[in-house]
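Q: What would this chain look like folded?
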Amino acid sequence: MLRIFGHFIPVPAVLLGIAEVLLVAAAVYFVAPPIVPQEFLQAGLHAVQARFALGLSLIAGVAMMAVGLYNYDVFLDRRVMVIKTVMALALVTPLAAVVVLVGRNFLISPSDGWSLLFLKVAFAWMSCVLVTRMVFLKVSDSDLFRRPVVVVGTGVRAARIARLVEQGTKRYFVPKAFVHACGDLRLVMGAPLDLDRTKDEYALAHYARELGAREVVVATDERRGMPLGQLLHCKVEGINVVDYLTFWERENGRLEIESLQPSWLIYSDGFRLSPINAAFKRAFDIVSAMGLLIFSLPLIVIAAIAVRVESPGPILYRQERVGLGGKPFTAFKFCSMRDDAEKDGTPQWATAVDPRVTRVGSVIRKIRVDELPQLFNVLRGDMSFVGPRPERPFFVEQLTRDIPFYAERHAVKPGITGWAQVNYPYGASLEDAKHKLAYDLYYVKNRTLFLDVVILVHTVRVILFREGAR
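A: My prediction, written as structure tokens:
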């Protein structure tokens, strides 16, 4: 994993993205010949052509990221890869058409027309993607891009790591061995080495070297009897040593609530937002909200008319939500439920097939149009464009009582979209709230403008594939 601006990104995804951007840029450069013959070509025109090719390839890369083509699960299902590649092509096509149309005066040779150049660019992009994906599929099942690790522990925590490998959900690492220590239960098949019994202070370091492991993960259930000498020698010999919670956060993009301790939150890196970064984030919120408001204005008008036609009640639904610092605010949404949705006055979780949702409400919920009025909350400063989903006071009181560290998610402004929303389906239960909190705390801990942009790009995927909509 690479940590870029506080956010963990898989090395294979980074390498694949760089390879595809450079390959597409090179292909576009050669299929878009300038209008001037080679022998009379000016040096400046070469630079213009190179910038055009690189810019177009970056647009294609963002489109591929937006539909999830760099997610690991794509490489486990070729059908999904084909579908998402077509979706990326649908996003790239109009943008490429505009770029090619603007640059046709200096990029098209006398024998080429705008349409021919556009077809060349599209063909170059598709060919490059097919090549890189075929190569990556060949090596994705090997250990080439997986970090070899030795796990110290054979108990509950170690079993969770082993389960990740068995499920195939996270395969950016490969456990070479599980070493028994600290009197752990033997829930995982352990290695011959037992740190509770060995007298050799260098045993763990030597064993890791023999297996070719570059990292030791401390995943014991108990801290008493920790083999500090063994771990120290690993560190001194250049083998990275990481604790279980940090490893879990890095590999899964979320915190593990069950094992979370206040001391780890206190001493771990993160939870910082300087005044300058806060000002940039606020400016980013305002620009994003205004841009989306202008872009989606026709959709907002259509949704408002549809809601009014179906129901004689109000178009907008005002509801009290909990925001920054636990303070309540009024959130705006399009009405998507019947007026008597909570006739007994008791708040209720939304369900997969909720009978309270109207026909128009069902449509606007699936494409997330019902949340567009919250852009006004962003402009007012009640919400951020990116952040944890705001909950109602009734549920916040219940969840704070039942889930440890739930109140810490209110250290930042709630958002229209967020890390939990793009990584976990719509939550409608206590267990769902616990899973989403793991992602929310990851965001609170690692929030940066870079992570906000990553979340916005992934939000496109969520909307296009209706992931989590209810």
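The two ends are 33 Å apart (CA to CA).
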